Amino acid sequence: MTNDSHDRSGRSSRRTLLAAGGTLATSLLGGCLGSGGSADSDTEAGASDGGSTTGGMATETATPTSDEWLSTELSAVRSGETFTVDSLTAPVVIQSFAVWCPKCKRLSNQLAQLDGTYTLLGLNTDPNEDAAKVRQHAEENDFGWRFAVAPTEMTQSLVDRFGSTVVNAPSTPVIVVCESGTATFLSGSDSTRPTIRQTAEEC
User: Fold this and answer.
1) Could you give the CA distance from residue 76 to residue 126 in angstroms, rounded to a whole number?
2) Interstrand relation of 146-149 and 119-124 (parallel, antiparallel or unpaired)
């Protein structure tokens, strides 16, 4: 590949991430940081306080060999253990979140009460946050599952697959990955504990 090709690829990647960041900023300006709603409610996560209804449930078929986000190496913020999504025991429930997002915290409280055998992964997709912030967030809230920070290439791959909503934290994006590699994307009114549980059980 020529240097020009690398430059064009880099500019394209940055444009996509900037567009995703613009979506996030627009959501914040639109009042997506509102409070309200019960942390342990089975009702719509984030919807009770005027939350985003963008997204909804959309099923995407993915395999570990075709999607970079599944095979990107991650580092657990507490243990330092390295892993990939496709190396985890399925079904894997991935919450794309940001530390500053109250709706994310409420959804995390719901995930903590999931019944059944699932692998939970808190995936921080905010480029302004780092492992130290995520580790502090997990420890202060007593969230006992695995947390990691998505590197740029993983974030790009997620946006390519699911659209910019996957990195819009107030939309409470969740991805359920089955052993077959099938991935179901949930957001807004669909990312609730009952729907997440049902989706995982149907893997």
Assistant:
1) 16
2) parallel
Cβ atoms 52, 32 nearer than 8 A: yes
pLDDT of 28 over the 50 cut: no
Rounded Cα gap, residues 61 and 40, in angstroms: 30
Distance between CA atoms of residues 50 and 64, nearest Å: 36
How much is the pLDDT for 178? 95
Q: Which of 166, 99, 164 is nearest to 138 (CA)?
A: 99
- 28 sits in which H/E element: helix 3-29
CA–CA separation, 136 and 129 (whole Å): 11
How does residue 116 score in pLDDT terms, banded at 50, 70 and 90? confident
Asked whether residue 38 carries a pLDDT value surpassing 70, the answer given is no
Strand pairing report for 82-83 and 183-186: unpaired
Q: What is the pLDDT of residue 147?
A: 98
SS3 93: strand
Question: How many C-alpha atoms does 151 have within 13 Å on its Cβ side?
Answer: 13
